[in-house]
Amino acid sequence: MEQTVKINSKIILKPSRIGKKYYVKTFGCQMNEHDSERISGLFELDGMQKAESEDNADILFVNTCTIRENADDKLYGTLGHLKKWKLESENRKLLVGGCAAQKDKNLVRDKAPWVDVVIGTHNLTNIINLLNQSEDWGPVTEIIDEIENLPTDAPSIRESEFSAWLTIQIGCNNSCTFCIVPSVRGPEISRRPSDVINEAKQLVSEGVKEITLLGQNVNSYGRDLKIDNKSRPYFAQLLEQLNNIPDLERIRFTSPHPKDFKKETIFAVKELSKVCNQIHVPLQSGSSSILSKMHRGYNKERFIEKIDMIRSIIPNVSLTTDIIVGFPGETDEDFIDTMDIVNYSEFDAVYMFKFSPRPGTVAFNMKQEFVEKKVIDNRFQLLKDTQTDISERRLKRFVGTEQLLLIEKLSKKNNQIYSGKIDSGQITHIDKGDLNLGDFVKVNIVDSTPFYLKAEQL
Ligand code: SAH
Ligand code: SF4
Ligand code: F3S
Q: Hey, what CATH class is 151-396 in?
């Protein structure tokens, strides 16, 4: 008898690959990690089971990133290695999706003709159709410019039982001159608040305790929505509705854009008990002239105002940021402005990147102003050393405090240690003892490093 499976999904499939094994290899950001969970969901709807590694998989999906040049190099290096994997058995299928596939289109199969399916970011939910087509007619590439349907239409097989990603918005309407995301992820589309809330409730009913809301610019959430002629729903209102869901314990979000940061969002972080005490404010550069060339929509003074506003409302909040070193034309004075803001803001952590020219972006054509590699390397090292000292100082403030820790996974380096996060987002290690994954435990923070905390159960 034919079986029809539907797991919390708008998509219905008749499973045709019962017993086959799949594996998904993911590069890039949280959006990609979550898309991979949707791909896994579709594969399981089709009857497949997850393999432990690519070695025992029949179907391998590589979900790619293209944010910096080295991400592209990594992709073609990986596909080179996977030629051997593919040729080991006629029945194996190699699938490539994600942002690099969306950007490179036919180039993927030109460079790696052993790939069976190339799929973009806009049509993810069509993956099983394309897999079928490739079996019937041979290799296929399908990259489309318009968004076909949201990845959230597909079911999701989550990596973690207790923490879940929740997409509230896809794409991006900004035009930061260094960034390739708008061209590979398309325009900003917000999901309806009721869809977000229903998915959150569903996740909680499955045992999820912590939800991380995903969007490229979460605080412009809802700008494209109009509900019953009422004004658009604001991000802070969405947080409030999520906060009311019984049994949901924690809400995090990433990433907000400094130019759209509203007071209401800061008050939501302060006042809503489930919204965690952390805010990511991506600075990119501290120099007003570079920020203007980056097309970021704020200058040094406006950024400092935002930091002051956040700190005056929530003095003990954990702040993190992203910084690009060596944007075209960055002078020593520009870099000093960045260091000034870093010293002033006292971020808990800084995610730092060396500028990487991406074809198709405005900054790619600023070649005559590219900063010398040696200069970028020196500035990067200086920033890293300075921030390591700041992070070390910042994380020490937790030592001796009592915190609530969600146990998330085994440490990669030591299987007697669990790793999790405290409310304000710091990674925290604790001896396994008789603890279990998913436990919420009261702990005492006993030690700190610049990068993580150590805890003991109370
Ligand atoms: N939407 C998010 C950023 C997503 S990309 C935001 O606006 O904050 C994540 C980070 O990658 C960016 O914040 C930026 O610091 C970095 N990045 C993006 N393009 C880059 C490039 N061409 N070179 C170096 N770093 C880059
Ligand atoms: Fe890229 Fe800017 Fe959009 Fe972030 S806000 S994804 S950096 S274009
Ligand atoms: Fe993310 Fe990389 Fe795409 S950072 S949005 S996977 S280009």
A: alpha beta
